[in-house]
Amino acid sequence: MFRRHNITARIFERQIHTPAPGTSIHRARRFYENIVPASTIYEVECPDNSFRKFTEDGKYLISFSRNHQDLIVYRPTWLSFSCKQEDCDNQPLPPKAKKFESFFTQLYSVPLASANELICKDFFLYAETNQFGLFATSTAQIYDAPATGGAIQGVPSIEKITFHLLRLEDGVVLDERVFRNDYINLAHSMGVFLFDDLLAIVSLRYQRIHILQIRDSGSLVDLRAIGEFCREDDELFLNSSAQALSSVDKRAPHHTPVNNAVNGSPLEQPAQENPFLSGIKQRLLSFIVRGIQNEEKDETMRIQSLKKKFYFHFQDYVDLIIWKVQFLDRHHLLIKFGSVDGAVSRNADNHPAFFAVYNMESTEIIAFYQPFNILQMSSDELYLLFEQYCDHFHVPSKSSPYMNFISSHSNNIHALEQLRSSKNKATSFPLFIKKVLVSLPFNCQSQSPSPYFDQSLFRFDEKLISAADRHRQSTDHPIKFILRRPPHTLKFKIKPGPEAGITDCRTKRISSFLFHPILPLALSVQQTLFLQPAVVNIHFRR
Amino acid sequence: MGSSWDVGNWPSFDPHNFSQLRPNDPSAPSTPITYHPTHERTLPPPDQVISSEAKNILLRQFYQRGDEKLRPKRAAPENLSPEQECKHPRASFASSSEPPK
């Protein structure tokens, strides 16, 4: 059906036609085809900060000082100027347009990190309902840390990681949570997941998932710590029964404890020497065993199957550690397991990944998927679910309704076509599945909700720019945004870097793009890998 | 002819078409007759409570596959393709809250 593209015609049509059921937001977003950030101001004079992102409601721009110790928050405003000539639209912009302050007003600057700490500039989570922001500061990483106190050997240690909860309206620090001698993956918020008011923090070193709640008053409340113990009172129960048995043993030394669930070894040994696996590892292994047992009806076949599929790989299963976690809803977690080497290495592609769905309330494992096709719990089942229900992995919460409109292959035909074509082009299906499942569990708030990334509105080169906020290789050519619908015209271009381009082609440059979620405003930041000041361009609708 | 339906003298193809129609008598308002079913095949069970499903569709799929794995298998090997699974009768989800055996 041919729809008129003229903005006035669209506004008139909006007055008389109601949109098709369930598409009112899609129709409203189509106006972004007409209002585009086509003007660029090159090399804006801006303070030397590292700009992180716009918050999802568009109210704040988060940036950190160059020395990674202060947080500076700006409010996006708009350039305003007066023009006395006749033809104002075609007049060049006044010189104050080149100033950062014309577009943003600084609200406050708060020092978050003390002397030997640095703010992790890749970490920022926003709780939209209360306008709280979560930031992280950490001290330096120690690589060869000894495995003390229940820590896993091979995982580095950080002396102090602090999470700061700030009210972004005025920059008041509401609460802090400190983790000592621990290791949490802070890059791109990988080790932390925020869903509504629940926070899941993965401590890689001690293999615990800390579940916290952000209260409206701004305090961080511990709910549970999953890992060694599944329920909140497990530790209390085990300790009290250990104490009771030790007191029984003292009174009757000839009495041998029979079938003692807590201790398989003599009571003098400390609790760490306990050969029994507890907590989530026990749940996982028992789920695998029950699955294998149920496959065979015949008793001898069952034992054979168990030997071959479980006991042969027993040590590998026991050595699995938690890599990453996300919420699937308020009670369920999707946990990715793997080996210790894979957790620490930058390129996790070579290490097999295992996925489990865990119910926090009933402390049961619901599903488990592994990369080998031994059992029927293989990753291609998980891939099929991901293909069909991708949006449910991007857990939508009531407090952030914009999440439903970020293009994914479950809500957008063009993204689905892209996925299908890469599936058909893939030479090996298991490798393709592995590549796709690397992105699970998802990083929280890593995609920009800007309508300019909506695949049904615009077509753009995904390798050069996309909704995911990560740094990309910078090119000299501007990045084009072309309309998806007829008349398929080029609507606007984003060109990072100086207007004339860079003459020195040897230095590698990376760019990052910050799109405002609502206004036709975008920042492109191009930096070289050395400590030269970044080149910031502002793209906006004039 | 024979039609008492002459509210407004509307044109009609055949004047006998509406001869059976009894127009609403504004002087004696009557409520329309309620339909009572003559059989009991479609009655809901007396203790039925309709509520929304707490789990989203993805979690329902995880639970369904988990339940099928833990149920003792039939002799014939099952082909666990997703299309066929959608057509199986849904297992009761109350079983997921039972403690593991």
TrEMBL record, chain B:
GO cellular component: Cul4-RING E3 ubiquitin ligase complex; nucleus
Residues of the DET1- and DDB1-associated protein domain: 8-67
Annotated spans, Disordered: 1-48, 65-101
Full protein name: DET1-and DDB1-associated protein
PANTHER family listed in its UniProt record: DET1- AND DDB1-ASSOCIATED PROTEIN 1
Domain of life: Eukaryota
Pfam families according to UniProt: DDA1 (PF10172)
Polar residues composition bias: residue spans: 17-33
Gene Ontology biological process terms in this record: negative regulation of abscisic acid-activated signaling pathway; positive regulation of proteasomal ubiquitin-dependent protein catabolic process
InterPro entries: DDA1-like (IPR033575), DDA1_dom (IPR018276)
Source organism of the structure: Helianthus annuus (Common sunflower)
Record family assignment: Belongs to the DDA1 family.
